[in-house]
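Q: Convert this sequence to structure tokens.
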Amino acid sequence: MNRNRWKLVCQFAALACMLASPAAFAGNYGVSPLDFQLTQQRRSGVLTITNEDKAPIALRVRAMRWTQDAQGVDVYEETNDLVFFPKRVDLQPGDKKIVRLGVNAVGQDAERAYRLFVDELPPPEDPTRDRGSRLSVLVSIGVPVFLTPDGAEAKLVVEQARFGDGLDVTVGNPGTSRVRLSRVMSGEGVELAQNIPGRYVFPGVRKQLRIPAAAPACAGGRVPLKLDAGATMTGFDAACAR
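A:
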């Protein structure tokens, strides 16, 4: 599936969830953990899937290589790099089952990223159901999987930033591990924004972000800010809108 089609699928799923009426239904299942970090010392993991619905559910599991293009846009491609079993999971209400995940080696120079997708499959056709009375929303959960070599290090560089209709900021990662942005702070430590769109910045990637945030009091045309990336806090100055 090409990148544009992946974008369309994601946008349609989000729209369907927002517009779903009380007559709409979707599978109610959960996965744990929410991500994996595999290393040379830890080459495997276990994903637990729980059916929290009142009806049986069938799921498909598949792996995709996850990269970012020159504009920092997520790209997904089929891959055989990950080994996992089973590839189909059938769950009765309240059931839990595990998917075993592994990789042969983590020997690359920079971290590699994947997603293990758990896709809800359509339920069997019910001839007694009025097809026009219900909207079926099939859920897909993409669990991040990172293969991290020894010594990999994340580095965040803020190239430019400006307040306008939100905060426009250009960031780069010249390191060998991902950066995961979590929030924007003022120079005084006040939280200005969280849940940053496009929060992952992969090694060697440069991307532009628009973060919904209002400019704090501005002096001299610039305001000091900080980007919280978990293990690191990067300070920078943003130009104020005129």
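Residues 3-19 form the longest helix (17 residues).
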